[in-house]
């Protein structure tokens, strides 16, 4: 949209610029008032710049808009923003709520941001395996939608967990991601989407999304064709499969912490 602010949060590390841009965008003279997305950007940028009071003030406005709207999208954006200023179990609960709510709507970029922020938080909590799960989802989603700056941010975060991620090129666009490979193999074994989701801690809609992408890449149109495509599935991965939440060790996940319901 012409005249719309461009946020520096799309580039890793430019949170001071992002805070300034978000502040200008929600200035009182910009019309009917700030949108919930602009306020969400302000919350994130303020948190990254250690301006807790400013983040808390913006979050109050996010909450007002979200609860007035009452939609999964608005409430998901609020949960995502609230998680940024929360700590410990409260933060994790809010990140999960954000992902659960945003998984129900069609705005994929907003959901991808939630996975990214949750993955970054998990990495900072020294839960590397869980962090890889969320960051991997975010990376794949951003790469698929052409959001290169955010995909790069997710890739760098993944590298910080010890995982190597190849950048997408024309030659690798048709390769299955590790998540698509895993979902496809389980579907070929006869599992339903809810059963796959329960095993991999994914929502059924996310499972369906991965299968749809895999079908297109494998040039098939039904689950019945997956068995015959098994050799192709094994030969078209983008990067080696990393451990999933099912194989998380005690050193990667604190005792008593719940497994990810929406991880890779």
Descriptive notes:
By secondary structure, the protein is an all-alpha fold. It folds into 3 domains: 8-105; 121-161; 174-241, Winged helix-like DNA-binding domain superfamily/Winged helix DNA-binding domain (Arc Repressor Mutant, subunit A, Orthogonal Bundle). It contains 12 helices and no strands. The relative contact order is 0.10.
Question: Which terms would index this structure?
Answer:
mainly alpha; disordered N terminus; Arc Repressor Mutant, subunit A; 3 domains; single chain; 264 residues
**Tell me, what's the shape?**
globular
* Number of discrete domains: 3
Which whole number gives the mean pLDDT?
Answer: 76
Low-confidence stretches: 1-12, 29-33, 233-264
Estimated structural class: mainly alpha
Question: How many H/I helices?
Answer: 12
- Beta-strand residue fraction: under 5%
Biggest sheet character: none
Rg over C-alpha atoms, rounded to the nearest angstrom: 19 Å
First CA to last CA: what distance?
33 Å
**Percent in helix:** 55-70%
Order of helices and strands: HHHHHHHHHHHH
> What is the number of E strands?
0
In brief, what are we looking at here?
The chain is mainly alpha-helical and 264 residues long. It contains twelve helices and no strands.
Set out the fold topology.
Layout: H1 15-25, H2 36-48, H3 52-69, H4 72-85, H5 88-102, H6 108-124, H7 128-145, H8 148-160, H9 178-188, H10 193-200, H11 204-218, H12 230-235
